[in-house]
Each structure stands twice: as structure tokens, then as C-alpha cells.
Amino acid sequence: MTDENSVGIVKTKYFTFAEPPDELKLESGQVLGPITLAYEIYGSLNKEKGNAILIEPALSGDAHAAGFHEGDKEPGWWDSMIGPGKAFDTTKYFVICSNVIGGCKGSTGPSSINPKTGKPYALEFPLITISDMVNAQKYLIGHLGIDRLLCVVGGSMGGMQALQWVASYPDKVRSAIPIATTLKHSPQQIAFDEVGRQAVMGDSDWREGNYYGHGQPEKGLAVARMIGHITYMSDQSMEEKFSRRLKDKNFSFKFITDFEVEGYLRYRGDSFVKRFDANSYLYITKALDYFDLSGGRLIPSGKTIDTRFLVIAFKSDWLYPSYQLQDIVRQLKTRHVDATYCEIKSTYGHDAFLLEVKEETHLIRHFLKKVYKEGT
Amino acid sequence: MTDENSVGIVKTKYFTFAEPPDELKLESGQVLGPITLAYEIYGSLNKEKGNAILIEPALSGDAHAAGFHEGDKEPGWWDSMIGPGKAFDTTKYFVICSNVIGGCKGSTGPSSINPKTGKPYALEFPLITISDMVNAQKYLIGHLGIDRLLCVVGGSMGGMQALQWVASYPDKVRSAIPIATTLKHSPQQIAFDEVGRQAVMGDSDWREGNYYGHGQPEKGLAVARMIGHITYMSDQSMEEKFSRRLKDKNFSFKFITDFEVEGYLRYRGDSFVKRFDANSYLYITKALDYFDLSGGRLIPSGKTIDTRFLVIAFKSDWLYPSYQLQDIVRQLKTRHVDATYCEIKSTYGHDAFLLEVKEETHLIRHFLKKVYKEGT
Fold first, then answer.
1. pTM to 2 decimals?
2. Which top CATH class is A13-184+292-375?
3. pLDDT of residue A376
4. In this structure, which topology does domain A189-287 adopt according to CATH?
5. Which of A181, A214, B182, B289 is the most buried (most CB within 10 A)?
């Protein structure tokens, strides 16, 4: 299962910060605590503690970015990019990946037990923002003994976290690589999220969020995920993968799966339901929609930062179209920040950030080498 | 309410063809009858019966395309295009609009009473195709005493019916104007339809289609319509209409409507539920997905036709992108059919076919005049 380019067998770790003042004051004004963060680490922190890279997950991503969990056949979600000799070379860098608060993969979220009631939070869990996610991660980074990150990197929601790190803690970040992401959701992006939320909340099995112990609102969550999957692919990649191929020889003339693409979507929807909490889906999509670092909020006026940027867009990504990445670069340039923009010619749509490994590796390896060298 | 450019007060009419052999043999092999078609007519048929134009509705369109129903404040769905002096000038042409079988606006569909059981068909209704819809319309056209249509025109699904008229009855159609449509749904278009169907069928109120007398599967159907509305608008038109404007001054930090675009979608979803039958939604989207006149099926090999075409695409329409309209033109040109292609520079997305009245009027008026003149 593992090879010389793999980080091998890994384990998810957990960090809990429990007592006030370690309770997190949230952007909503509410507080949350104790908080547990699930995270994984690959490679070793050097003695200057200057080689730490924080990998930020996307909506459904977890802390398991690379290597294999004992007994698993599939590696972590960005294994193609993290390991010896890979883009995030673990023989050089100390790579951290942490799951977000609000999620359901070991970090505190709506499905976690509320210590005040002994029951899952459900909708008692406060709404969290991308800024709250990053504030929680800052405790983890401190816990790991790191004062300044060499790089914060992520695609999609991971890119928003990378941008938020710079906005919140510019002195703590030497470089950032936002990929296939945006300074703010457009109304179209909000609309897709809202339809997904309505699908979940419209499912009678959702029970106003109190479904724990009864089973998930499976149908609603599957529909939400199916919508998501359409937006992750491009018209062209769907054509290449499915075209109009039928599951069977002829049309069924029934309301069952006729086309392969229908079967694929149902499969994706059904498998998501098994691994992801419906309330987490609501909380995280709301955090995505609230996020807004446009209008000078990325770098507050009067502030000078020396964080360097590599901004990556994909030509066929219509969920986070390249104009949104160009907006990031424009905002950086007007503040005299060192930023490189690359648009990769991919047909994969938004999924490209997980699939265009060769191109990304080329860009990122080079960029990191330069940033790392300048700091030593 | 009415003015000199309006066809004025109109009434929907009904035509029923009941006895075998007037029972319709469907593409699925099943039969359907008796069949009622709801339709409206505007203008007068000339004595040569050569000025009849058939307007084809889109998914949620009905027979009421122009003028006002007694007491209504809103005119028919394409009133801006049909009337004295308008694109489809009712002082010159005899304009017919018919609702499709499978629908819920007076034509026979799943919510109609099955004469064999005395109850609504529900899923006993056979699956129908665009070809079946057109075959039913042919009875209506015959009933109206028309042997050959001057023009068949429609946007979206209406465009598919226009194309199907040519494929099925080329000698009966002097000209066709397919707008914002396609020869076949791509996997992405099928995917959007399938998610909508899953939303409806996943709603426990759907009751396997037998919800008549119990109330619609409102939440599922609303979600399906919300998805639809996103695809009908463009990223840019949503930005222009909503941007990130909030309903209230601040974020709610709750799972309620924060952004105006969310409120708009919910409103659209909720109002659709009041006027459209959920099972009709399933049947009609399936007909859309099955439709395929690619690969020479539009004009069978060896056949020569003299139907003239005006094919209209819209630049920002990403649901029926312009390459699909160009495919229609390509197929026509290879068969030496007279076809004009126009791509209108609109930001409205797919909705443009209902909104870009001025540009469409200019193109269509000119085209019809030419076709009409050559026939007299």
C-alpha cells in the first residue's frame, strides 16, 4: 500500500484546549469550549521551527491528508501532494493538516457532545465562521511550538482559511497558496449552498437538527451532495466521463437510473451520507457564505505585510471561476504584496485542485523552495 | 390592463381526441387516451391557412402565452412577443400555443383522472417523450384545419419541440425557430434534472407519486425549482440583481435567510409549488433527458427538407450553452438546410429567451416576413 513517496502509516491526533481563557470567543459573540481539533503531522519540525506548512481542508476534507491509516487501502485526500519528494516534501517540511471546527471528523462540531447537556450540540452549536476556524487552528499551531508558519495552503474552503490566516495573523504567515477559492462567495455560490441547506432542512428526518440517535436526513443530504458534485465537475469533464451512456441497453421508461451520470451522482450522494454529518454540512456552508475578505479586509489599510502569495486558478472551474482568483491578486497588488498568479489549463472543473497534481507540484515546489531559502 | 399591442382578453380552449385510432401510441410502446390538449389562439387563420405559427412552451410554460385571462393582472408568459405589431404579429399571423401532455395546465398528465380507475394517474401515467408531445399537437393542428405550419418556435424545451416537429413532420413545417435549446441534453443537464427529481422523490410527502388529496411534496419540489432557477440565471445577472445584499442589516448567525438571493430562491420555490404538479415535473424532465436528435436524427439521411431555420443562442446561457445551438446549425448545414445562427449578447443567462424581447423581435419579425412572403 505504501511506497517510498508515501509518508506511510499515520494516525490522527487530537488537541483539546479546555479552560477559559482558552475558550474561543466567536465572531458571532458566542463562546465555544472546550474545543478539540483533529490533526495529522507529516515530516519533522526543524530546530529553527521554520519549516511548518499548514494544509487547510475543503468542505468535506478531514485531517487525514496523507499516508494511510492502519488497514486502509485509500490514502489521505491530498496524498498525491504530500510526502517524500512530493510538492509538500516531507523530507524538508513539517506538514500539518487540521480539521475545522464545525466539522464531524474529530474536531468539535454540532455532532460533538455538549458538555453542558451531555447530548450532541445539534443546533445548540454556535454558528462558526472561517475566522473562527483559523482562530482555533492558532491554538494548535502554538501547541506545536510554531511561532510562524512557512506556508498556509488550501483549495476551495481551504483557500479561504489560507486567506483568513493572512488577514488575521499576517505576522504568523510567511507565505500563502490559495487555490480555486475566492475573497467572497458570489450570489450564485450562496444560492447553490442555500439549495443544499434547504434540501437537508426540508428532509423530515432532519427533525430540526435533532436527528442524532435516529439516523441522518439521508435523502436531503444526498441531494445536497449531488448538487455539490455537479458544481465540482465541468461540463466538459462530465461529457468525457459519462457522455450520454446508459446504464442498461435501452431507456427504462421508468423513474430509475437510465444514464450513467445519474448512477454516479446517486452513488456520490449515498456515500457522502455515510461519512458526513448533515448539521456539519449546514454549519460549514454557512461559514463559506459569510466569508468576505473583499473591500480591503484581506490586508487592512495602513498595514504592510511581507507574506508572499502563489494564487492558483483552473480554467474550467466554474464554481470558483478564475476572475475570483484574479480579484485576490488584484487586491494583493494594490497593497504591494508579492503575488504570483497561475491559471492552469484543466478540464476537470473545481475538482482540478485535487487532480492536477503535476502542474500544481511544479508550481508549488518552486515557490516553497524560494520562500524557504529566503528565510534561512 | 390591455393596450393596443395586446391580444386582449383570451380564454384557454380544450381539444380532446378520444376514440381509437385517435389514442396515441407512445414512444415507450404504451398507449394514452383520451388525450386533452389545452391551447390558446391569437389572430385569425387566413383563407389559404398559411399563416399559422405554433408557439411551444418550456418546462413550466402553459398554453396561456399572450393576452389576459379575465380578471388577471399579469399577461401570458410570452406576451411581450405575441400581439399586434409584436414579433409574432397577430394582425398577420394566426398564433397557437398548446400545453404539453405530461403537464398540469389543462393537457392530460399524471394529475389528470385516469378514466380506467376514476383516480389521478399518478405514476400509472406512461412516460412521455418530446416526440409524443409533438404527435399529440399534430392532432390539434389537424383539428384547427391546418395542413402546414408557417413556423414552429420555442425556447428551451419549446425549442426541442420545434426541432422534433421538423424531425417527425418535415413537410408540415415551413420554418422553425429553436431558441436556447439543444439536440440532446449533456450529462450536466441530465445531472441537474436528476437532482431535481431526487429532491421530489426523496420528499416523504411524495408517497411514491400518490400524493393527490394529501398535498404536494412541497419541500422537495421547491428544492428542485430552486436548482432550476440557479441554472436559468447567469453568475453576472445574479450579481447585478442581488450581489451580497443582506435581508437585514447584519448576519443572523442562524439558519434563516441572510442574503437576498436566498429569499428570492425560497420565494421562487414556494410559488412554484402552488402552481405546478410534482409528478409533472418528473415526467417532463425525463422527457427532456431522453430527447436526442443528434447523430443525423434531426434530418434522416437521404431526406431533403425545405424547412428554413433561425437558431438563436444567448451568450451568458450556461444551461443551454451556445455550442449546443451551433451544433444544431452544423447538423442543418451538412444537410444543406437554410439556417441562420444568431448569438445575442445578453447577461440574463437562460432566462434571456423570455427577456431579450427587442433583439428577438428584430430577428424573428424579419425572418418570418421573408418566409411568409416566399410562400405566397
1. 0.97
2. alpha beta
3. 65
4. Rna Polymerase Sigma Factor; Chain: A (1.10.1740)
5. A181
